[in-house]
Design a protein that fits this description.
Blueprint (H helix, E strand, L loop, with lengths): L3 E4 L2 E4 L4 E7 L8 E7 L6 E6 L6 E3 L7 E6 L4 E6 L8 E8 L11 E2 L3 E6 L1
Parallel strand pairs: 2-11
Antiparallel strand pairs: 1-3, 3-8, 4-5, 4-9, 5-6, 7-8, 9-10, 9-11
């Protein structure tokens, strides 16, 4: 089992950048594929990005390709999401998640953080 804690959310102007971090507990962090999802009010949870266990492959939702980057540090049990060129439409609660499997839907992930709010002003 793994516990996830997100940090780094906040208020940013459109065009700005933020870096979200996810700190994982446990000694088996490298066993999990990691992902970020987001959920805006009255919308479904949306896939943002995922990274494989060894960090060798990354995947992105269409709306964030070219602007966001996911990376991980297995030695430090962390997964991060670098968000550049932020738009008002990126505003949401961002969730870190982990799975033994792979995938891009919430059902593919077994462990979730509590979320961190990202607000983008126009």
């Amino acid at each position: 089992q793994v516990q996830l804690v997100e940090s780094g959310g906040g208020l940013v102007q459109a065009g700005g950048s933020l870096r979200l971090s996810c700190a994982a507990s446990g000694r088996t962090f490298s066993s999990y594929a990691m992902a970020w999802f987001r959920q805006a009010p009255e919308k479904e949870r949306e896939f943002v990005a995922a990274i494989t266990r060894n960090g060798g492959s990354t995947y992105y939702g269409d709306s964030v390709k070219g602007r966001f980057s996911i990376f991980r540090g297995n030695a430090k049990n962390t997964a991060c999401l670098q968000m550049n060129s932020l738009k008002p439409g990126d505003a949401a609660v961002y969730y870190c998640s982990a799975t033994y499997r792979t995938g891009s839907t919430p059902a593919d992930y077994d462990y979730w953080g509590q979320g961190t709010q990202v607000t983008v002003s126009s």
